[in-house]
Amino acid sequence: MIREQKHRLSPELYCGNIIGAFTACITGRVSILNKIEVFSAISQIFFDSLNSCGCNAHVYLFMPDHCHLLIQGNDHNSDLLRFMKHFKQRSGFWFSKNIPGIKWQKDFYDHILRNDEDIKKQVYYILENPVRKRLVDTWKDYPYKGSTIYNFEEW
Questions:
Q1: DSSP result, 74-133
Q2: Cβ distance 70 to 21 under 8 Å?
Q3: How far is CA 150 from CA 5, 16, 26, 104, 145, in A?
Q4: Strands 109-112 and 55-62
């Protein structure tokens, strides 16, 4: 039997006032996250997870079959890894109760930003995803996005 290699950083590196970029995908890349009733329910779970783990979102963007999250810990007690696990577990439970057969892929992609990385550049890159996929002409027209830090209407 082939064992899976560990690819996650040490858990303590996800703690504190740091910023992490996360991408989570729906199993089979089923398009479900861009349905308003799903987005409403999953985004509420997302906000609850942010609050319970002491985090904020520079940007969250739900594509049809995956989501991009740029999350920052509020203080030394914040835990981005705990946030992501909490969010996926609770939203996965919602899927199981409301849309049987829809699940998150087992894992997720992550990247801890270095101090010298331009945060707004990362935010814009995420916001441009629906434009690159030709879902909208401009990121401002894409409805399944937001931030707990910025007011995108002012950008």
A1: SSTT-BHHHHHHHHHHHHHHHHHHHSTT--B-S--EEEEPPTTS-HHHHHHHHHTHHHHT
A2: yes
A3: 37, 21, 27, 27, 12
A4: unpaired
Could you report the per-residue pLDDT of 24-45, keeping only the tens digit for each? 999 999 999 999 999 999 999 9
Alpha-carbon distance 18 to 79, whole Å?
9
Q: Which of 65, 21, 14, 58 is nearest to 42 (CA)?
A: 65
Output the pTM of the full model. Answer: 0.90
CATH architecture under which domain 18-154 falls: 2-Layer Sandwich (3.30)
List of the chain residues with pLDDT < 70: 1-12
